[in-house]
Amino acid sequence: MKRVILILSLAVILTGCATTQDLSSVDHLKLRVGELERQADMKDDSLRDLNQEIRNLSYKVNLLETQLRERKTLSLGPGSVAEEDAASEEGIIRVSASTQEVQQALQEAGFYEGSVDGKIGALTQKAIADFQKARGLKVDGIVGAKTWAELQSYSN
After folding, report:
1. What SS3 class is residue 143?
2. Residue 148 and residue 92 in one domain
3. What is the pLDDT, as a whole number, of residue 51?
4. CA nearest to 90, candidates 124, 55, 134
5. What is the pTM of this model?
6. Residues of the chain with pLDDT under 70
7. In terms of residue numbers, what domain contains 60?
8. Going by C-beta distance under 8 Å and a sequence separation of 6 or more, which residues neighbour residue 78?
9. How many domains does the chain have?
């Protein structure tokens, strides 16, 4: 009988230790899960910060692009120094003619259907190239001396 009590006591002690071990393993896992959740929260915060920084930079890029477009399309009137500088900066008009004069001549010659606005856009560039091709000139899309000499006959 003593032997049975001893075996039962030993079984209770061992079972108790196993339960205690299981609880400490569970507690350990809970701590680990808590740590992983904290790390995930920190990463979420970092992502939110980066997304905000991206939005701020995107806003600044859009603002700078708008300012650059406004500077390029700044028109102070036909034949103004600023207009001629803008055209020469792009390298399209290399003679002493304003963008509007070139557009007007191209329009009179039947090659330009856009508005005479003093802005060198895709329509103006295509009209220059088409005019050059039709006149047997070098098709480079640049209003140089030869192209302007041909266009001047259509200029008012």
Report:
1. strand
2. yes
3. 75
4. 124
5. 0.45
6. 1-23, 56, 58-59, 62-63, 65-67, 69-90, 156
7. 1-72
8. 98, 100, 101, 118
9. 2
